[in-house]
Each structure stands twice: as C-alpha cells, then as structure tokens.
Design a protein that fits this description.
Helices cover 40% and strands 22% of the residues. The protein has 265 residues and is α/β, with parallel strands linked by helices. The chain has a domain at 14-155 and 178-205 and 253-262: Vaccinia Virus protein VP39 (Rossmann fold). It has a seven-stranded mixed sheet. Strand 1 (55-59), helix 4 (65-72) and strand 2 form a beta-alpha-beta unit. Helix 2 packs across helix 9. It is globular.
C-alpha cells in the first residue's frame, strides 16, 4: 500500500497539523472557498443517486462549508467534527444540523447505519485510510458511496503554481502530508476490492487580496507554525501577488479533485 512521506526536519508533524485548525476556526469559516455546483453533480453521477433525500455523513466537517452546500442540495446531513472550535462554528452557523464530535477512524454509528453517502470535504488526508475506509463501508448502506474531495491550487495556472513553489521553498515540509492525488491508489491498496472513480473539475473565485491571504493563513501548516512565523511569509505573498493582481482582487484557481468509491451491493 502506498505510504505518506515522513515530515521533513523542522516541519510540523502530521498530528500537530491535524490539531491546528481550532486556532484558526473563525478565519477558516470566513476565508475558505466553497465548492461549485458541478462538484455535487459529479458526486451524484458517481454515487449513482441524487443528493436530494440522501442520508449523508459529512466527516471532518470543519465549520460546515460542505455541510451547508450538501443540505442545500436536499441531503439529510449529519456532521462529524473532532475539533471543539471548528465544531462550535458549525453549530452556531447551522444549529439544526446534527453534529457528532468524533474522528473518521472511529465513527460512532452502528454497523449498517444506512447512510447513502459518507463525504470528506478537504479532510480525508487527516485519517488513516486503513481505518477510515472500512469505517465508511461499515456505516454505508449496500451500494452507498464514499466521496472524497479537495480544492487544490490549480497547477495549470501559472501564478498559482508559482505561489505553491514559493511556499514550498520557504516552508520545510509544506504539503508533505497526503493530498488528493494519492487517494485512489490508497483506496485500491487496501485490498478490499474497491474501484474508485475520479474527476478533476476546474473553477475559480474572485476575492480581495486580504481574503486570499486569510485563506492561506487558515491552512494547517500556517496555523501550526503560529502567527509570528506565518506573518513574514504572508506579507511576502502580498507583495508577489500585487504584481499579478494590481487591483487587489485575486482570481483563485482550483483543481477540484474528487474520488468516489461505492460499497458493494
């Protein structure tokens, strides 16, 4: 089975990164991008059913960005989030949504709980696939689907690729933890006979430069190293981006990676 690379010297470890989001929960809620309607169209296609009326478990729900969009498509969503501050933001914004404090590696639901979809929005890389995939299969109905998706800076857009390269040069181990491209191989490598399907969707959003920098600052790496260490890196990005977007409005470009695999019927 493929394995994730160890952290580089001086880089925050995986556990530290996973716990970092509570420190930036408000910033995360305010600055992180959502997801375009085409994502949910693709989820429905690959899962083989509409989201309207579906029982959906949104695992690693964070502040509820995907939770709200899934509910807007008519899904009956239960959110799962381990972080206290992140869960607090979700509960405040979506008080009617059932919320469970738990990890994807140990879902507190009965076998064959009957969920139609277990979704991970920007969060599956914090799990142990050898545990989280069997857990998802355990609580799905036969024929139900596990869906994993990530907004990734679009490597085909020059300024976005250049920014990621700058950050990697300045920050030891930046993005050394697993991200979207590894998901299908990790799932296939579990030996469960699963056949993940994938899509890549390209989309953009226009935001003020300050919002873009706040989005960067809400990433786990920046949250883990703290404001003092993050500030000079983000200020350097401000200077670099004003050369590209002199009016102060950034057109963020995303390659949205989606992986869906169904539980055998």
């Amino acid at each position: 089975m493929p394995t994730l690379p160890p952290p580089q010297p001086g880089a925050p470890g995986h556990a530290t990164l996973a716990r970092a989001f509570d420190a930036v929960a408000a910033q995360y809620a305010a600055a992180r991008p959502g997801y375009p309607p085409a994502l949910f169209d693709a989820v429905e296609e690959l899962a083989g059913r509409p989201l309207a009326g579906a029982r959906v478990l949104d695992v690693g729900a964070g502040t509820g960005i995907a939770t709200a969009l899934l509910a807007a498509r008519g899904a009956e969503v239960t959110a799962v989030e381990p972080g206290a501050a992140m869960a607090g933001r979700l509960r405040a914004a979506h008080p009617a949504t059932p919320l469970v404090r738990a990890l994807g590696d140990a879902l507190p639901f009965a076998d064959d709980a009957g969920f139609d979809l277990v979704g991970y929005a920007q969060s599956w890389h914090w799990t142990d696939p050898a545990r989280s995939v069997p857990e998802a299969l355990r609580v799905l109905r036969p024929g139900g689907a596990l869906a994993l998706w990530w907004n990734v800076p679009d490597p085909g857009v020059p300024w976005a690729a250049e920014q990621e390269a700058r950050l990697a040069r300045r920050l030891p181990g930046y993005h050394a933890h697993g991200v979207a491209p590894e998901a299908p191989d990790l799932i296939r490598g579990l030996g469960l006979g699963l056949r993940p399907a994938t899509r890549v969707l390209h989309w953009t959003r226009r935001v003020p430069l300050d919002t873009h920098l706040a989005m960067l600052g809400s990433r786990s790496y920046f949250a883990a190293i703290g404001p003092a260490a993050a500030a000079p890196v983000l200020e350097a990005e401000r200077t670099a981006l004003l050369d590209v977007f002199p009016d102060g409005t950034v057109e963020e470009a995303y390659a949205l990676d989606l992986t869906v695999t169904r539980r055998p019927s």
